[in-house]
Amino acid sequence: MKIHLIHSQITLEYDNQLSLLSHLENNGIFHEYQCRSGYCGSCRVKIRKGKVSYKEPPLAFIQPNEILLCCCQVEEDLEIEM
Description:
With 82 residues, the protein is mainly beta. 9% of the residues lie in helices and 32% in strands. This is Class I ribonucleotide reductase maintenance protein YfaE.
């Protein structure tokens, strides 16, 4: 799958082996986070295209156009506002 970061115009390949947050960090892209488990919501970003799911519903409040980088499972190519 492809993850396109709109603001930085970067596109990365992604395979759901690591969290999306960890994958971004491994590629030199750092984003705010606190808990890494869906509790705090610090890693929320807006999604423009694509679909994610969650193994466990996150406790952090998110809008329909937001995802949590730390705990989402990517279902299809994404465009996110980063």
